[in-house]
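Summary for the funding panel

The consortium committed to producing paired sequence-structure records for every protein in the target list. Below we show the first two records in order, beginning with the earlier of the two.
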Amino acid sequence: MELNGVKEMVEMDTVDVLVIGAGPTGLALGADLARRGVDALVVERAGALFPGSRGKGIQPRTMEVFDDLGVLDAIRAAGGEYPVGMIWQDGRRTGEHRMFDPADTTDDSPYSTPWMVPQWRTQEILFARLEELGGRVAFGREVVGVEEAGPGVTVEFTSGTPVRARYVVAADGGRSLVRRALGIAMTGETVDPHPMLVADVRISGLDRDNWHVFPPSADTGGFLAICPLAGTEDFQVVAQFPEDTDVDLSLDGVRGTVAARSHLAPEDVTEVRWASDFRPRAALADRFRAGRIFLAGDAAHVHSPAGGQGLNTSVQDAYNLGWKLGAVLGGTAPAALLDTYEAERRPVAAEMLGLSTRVHRGETRRGAATRQLGLGYRGSSLAVETRGELPDDALRAGDRAPDATVGGVRLFDVFRGPHWTLLAVGTDEELQAPAGVRPARVDAYERYGTGVFLVRPDGYVGWAGSTTKTLPEYAAAVGLTSG
């Protein structure tokens, strides 16, 4: 900067990647970058991690991501299965309600149902993992300026030293300052005009074996749901209000809502630990990238909480982007690889937004689609299928690489880590794995059929063939060199 015609040298920190926002998206990305040896810094506007339970449902596909990131055991220990819904009427239990369609655990999908962990606890686990891997989070860093110039981006804060980064990832939520500064619009709609209360509370006189649902009546104007939060002593209260209601988030306000809509007395709500109000909406950023700046998580897509898709889609944004940033920054992959982030993730986000909205409006149930195991990237430039005449249900390039234990070898154990995997299934084809690629061989397995599969670091099949004849061409395009 210049002062009175004299250039002043401004002290500035430099990193490879600056991640703005220490929610689940930013923390997952920070951990993934840290295990790849990328010099990254996560900054957070607040002075501490988000304190609420908001995104409490972890879908099976995200459980697989957490397995790979090394936090699955902690996530499982911190949470539990969703309880059966119990419908109440006039102080009496009148029937059960299953929130999710049942699903069986199978060899190829070891995590079959959503796992409940309050968002604040998920963030604590990801934060601990990030620090264990050598990553960093700086709190109290509110962004006030973002400028891309030359081969990098300079970010300024209300306090503290500016940061110069080769790439910036905005994971700063649905009201993203970075997205607005870039002039990237969000296209969407109000899913429901009725305001909602979400609060973490302590309640006495209510069992923790059920998700308690109190349907709306003419007097209340909206439903009340009280869900015991697995791994804690808290309940999450969700209540719907008539349009244009100013939701009272105080202890007395929450007590009044609970007492008016249930058989509980106001004093049964002993504490409000966190409370928020919102209007459910769905919105998608017109772009996920502007130059060296990427949008991820709620900064790129905002969901209704129905169906539990928001946090999961967000974490998988980070999982898709992390390995690509690592490959480009490591000098092994062309910068064009980063173009595939928006190409792959924006269609998925659009699909999940539509699903969330349909679940919210009661047009579909929480079933197989909400578990996100069927999502993939078949239309991506990174999905190259060289086999012909495959059956309709065959595993193809672009699909999620399923788990299995074949001949004592568990595939998720082979895939786990920041590397690519070259997997031969039921074939004697010679494997000449490029550098940085782990070779593996198993007997024929029905879910895979036979062939050779190059599995990406994020667990999707990138290339598939009967032989490895065209593999070198694909490997060179994604930055893998011959070993």
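The next record, for a separate protein in the list, is shown here:
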Amino acid sequence: MTTTLGRKPRVLATRKMMPDVEQRLQRDYEAVLNESDTPPSMAECLKAAEGKDAIVITSFEKFGPEFIPALSPSVRIIATHSVGYDHLSVPQAKARGLALTNTPDVLTDATADISMLLLLGAARGASWGDRMVRENRWGTPTLVSPLGFDVSGKRLGIFGLGRIGQAVARRAKGFGMELHYHSRNPVADDLASGARYHASFEGMLPFCDFLSINSASTPETRGIINERTIALLPPNAIIVNAARGDIVDDAALIAALKSGRLAAAGLDVFKGEPEINPGYRSLENVFLLPHLGSATPGTRSAMGHRALDNLDAFFRGDRPKDLLTGD
């Protein structure tokens, strides 16, 4: 690969990636890989980045606002192996002239599949049903218990009708759900799958038998699922979250699940993961997954190649397709 450096750029990968991605990285760059996949501390990452031209990082490295200002001046670009970039500060990157890219598009379908899995699993008791069988608690069947909740024909509100939210809408339409959504702006009719737009998040909530969270984590959305907004949902509503954990106030959600104000929840993401609020673990009416949204071989490979596509463009002197720090 021809670069503006006159040599192969030096690239640090903070975590192990799919084999085909690592092979490409080693072929085209002077790469330092994390062969053990041991999560680095911020200090370890900063030391390893000394003298490097680029870093391929992941959303698992939540180093905080101290990270970018402390980076070696040799680093010119950070390519995050994720669509979300709330673990990195775009303003800080801009301030020091650092390019920052992400990997949108390629994980849309995998994450939308997980949203639907959460919705179905929470509604139909996949978690407690699985435990009943494994723990030999499956007794004589009755007509009145245990029972889940219907999905077909129910109302689904989608918070964030971006690429992933649109893919959720297409899937939910196949279940005959009545679709509603709130985003900062309405999307084109041909992308909304017939969903009704609500100009305010709070205004949508009374129409949500199910609420699917598919928005980005921003100062405006963090903690937006709280005691006040949960109270606006219909009785026995179900919340699913495949976006970011900090959008949810854990204490409020746990209290609503315990009290029966909410029927159930399905969660793939958590604030502070993998250290989650322990209150979730004892609840029968919550379906929990360990952040599996993009966890398929094809999707993780596509994400890695998208990150390297951005590096390739940058070191050719072109604008990366997924540049977050552009004008």
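Regarding this second record: The chain has a mean pLDDT of 96. The CA atoms of residues 13 and 33 lie 5 Å apart.
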